[in-house]
Amino acid sequence: MNFSLLFRMLILVIISVLFTNFILENNKIRNSIISLITPLTKFLRLPYPCVFSFVLCFFNSTAGKSALANFYKNKEINDIDVILTIVMSTFSTVLGEYLLTAQALITIAILGLKLGIIYLFLNLFSSFLQLLAGVVYIHKYQNTKTINIEEIPLIQKPKGNAIKRSIKILKKTIPTIIVTFFLINFLLEIGGYKYLNILFSPFLKFFGIPGMSAIVIIAQLIHFSAGYTTVATLFYSGTLTLKQALITLLLGSMAVITSIYLKYTFPMYIGLFGKFGIKVGIIDYMASIFSKFIMIFFLMFLL
């Protein structure tokens, strides 16, 4: 059992919650972020708290979702707002990871310029599809009015001390994450990954990739760099074509997404949103997987 993952998870959540609450307490920082998100609101047509969370996810996904949970608990946004924001914020999260971390450069360094850039584009575009789907839904079914900057709830300083507000959230979030983490890992320890492997194996032939591509998917589950190194070796040795390498990487990313959701995302959503977090997690997971499938089918039939 990877206790270092649990430790990092808890530290990240604690820092993120504190970070979010201190931002909300600082009028200057809060208003600066609001001035940046105002143009986005006109396009997204979401309530300002949702757009605030969307932008914050660019810098830190957990912080953005923690902020969203705060607004939801304060009844400033409803269930649909939360679901739409989380699904759409995948784009800002991925974009932030590419621009604010070394992940994009590491990907290109391992996979090579051509394979690396195409894979990064497909990954980013799949998240853009989630953003686009959310925007289409909002423009068709939602009727969010345009709000003047003075009407934004974030302008007003939140009640209470930032540390006290954070402790109130963490008192419920931390125990929930710990219990769920041990429960999920226990299920995986007794053979959960065997079932995942059985689930993915029958699809390999359908997607037109050789059986050894399963090695890449397994390696990617261990660490993204291991998966990238494996597929690069197979690609540059001529074992995999460009199309097969890209499909393998996307399938591997789907396996990684599944693993992350089981170990981290679902516990986090349940900790932040309670029972509603289960619904949020399922919809967010399905949206991420479906967008990846679209990219794979594009490669299979159009490339």
TrEMBL record:
<keyword id="KW-0812">Transmembrane</keyword>
<feature type="transmembrane region" description="Helical">
    <location>
        <begin position="44"/>
        <end position="61"/>
    </location>
</feature>
<feature type="transmembrane region" description="Helical">
    <location>
        <begin position="174"/>
        <end position="193"/>
    </location>
</feature>
<dbReference type="InterPro" id="IPR011642">
    <property type="entry name" value="Gate_dom"/>
</dbReference>
<protein>
    <submittedName>
        <fullName>Nucleoside recognition domain protein</fullName>
    </submittedName>
</protein>
<dbReference type="Pfam" id="PF07670">
    <property type="entry name" value="Gate"/>
</dbReference>
<feature type="transmembrane region" description="Helical">
    <location>
        <begin position="5"/>
        <end position="24"/>
    </location>
</feature>
<keyword id="KW-1133">Transmembrane helix</keyword>
<feature type="transmembrane region" description="Helical">
    <location>
        <begin position="117"/>
        <end position="138"/>
    </location>
</feature>
<keyword id="KW-0472">Membrane</keyword>
<dbReference type="InterPro" id="IPR038880">
    <property type="entry name" value="MJ0871-like"/>
</dbReference>
<feature type="transmembrane region" description="Helical">
    <location>
        <begin position="245"/>
        <end position="262"/>
    </location>
</feature>
<feature type="transmembrane region" description="Helical">
    <location>
        <begin position="82"/>
        <end position="111"/>
    </location>
</feature>
<feature type="domain" description="Nucleoside transporter/FeoB GTPase Gate">
    <location>
        <begin position="171"/>
        <end position="275"/>
    </location>
</feature>
<feature type="transmembrane region" description="Helical">
    <location>
        <begin position="282"/>
        <end position="302"/>
    </location>
</feature>
<feature type="transmembrane region" description="Helical">
    <location>
        <begin position="213"/>
        <end position="236"/>
    </location>
</feature>
